Amino acid sequence: xxxxxxxxxxxxxxxxxxxxxxxxxxxxxxxxxxxxxxxxxxxxxxxxxxxxxxxxxxxxxxxxxxxxxxxxxxxxxxxxxxxxxxxxxxxxxxxxxxxxxxxxxxxxxxxxxxxxxxxxxxxxxxxxxxxxxxxxxxxxxxxxxxxxxxxxxxxxxxxxxxxxxxxxxxxxxxxxxxxxxxxxxxxxxxxxxxxxxxxxxxxxxxxxxxxxxxxxxxx
Length: 219
Known about the structure:
- By secondary structure, the chain is of the alpha/beta class.
- It has 2 domains: 8-140, Response regulator (Rossmann fold, 3-Layer(aba) Sandwich); 159-213, Orthogonal Bundle (Arc Repressor Mutant, subunit A), CATH 1.10.10.
- Helix content is 48%, strand content 14%.
- Strands 2-1-3-4-5-6 form a 6-stranded parallel beta sheet, sandwiched between helices.
- α9 packs across α10.
- Mean pLDDT is 86; it is low at 141-152.
- Residues 150-215 form the HTH luxR-type domain.
């Protein structure tokens, strides 16, 4: 790598000092990346970024005191949308993943991933604008890294299916979605199962991913 080539700048925000230092050391060993700053919580990153210390990527812990990952990614997406957020968590539950992606995170990884996957995640976010942990994508999504739909065989959704997808991206339960759409829970189940088949996904997170990637919801 030439001396004139600018390294990709990374901010690390996690309230666990030991993990944060280990991440910084690991990222510093990647040829094309450099750690720009570390922070304990969202307030730290907010202070640094408003002082014009702006990274390309922020690795952001979801659960932190003072200003957690949800509040931080919302603030970043609104004020500095060019900063790509890679969410970091010990949890792989659908609600946490959906909420972080819905608020603007470009990727989601677990704290127990191997060093090689962290590098893959950073590369993928920079090149493809998205990444989910291999464990998560294998567990909950089918065909994440291939385009959903082929220009020669476009996926056609009805207005009701689009409305259902938009509501799936909220924190409403399926029962609440049925009430909101004035339909029975059985009809909601039919929408969900039809879309699972049509979009080649297996879970609610897969539906959310399709909706976000295809501009059916605002983030």
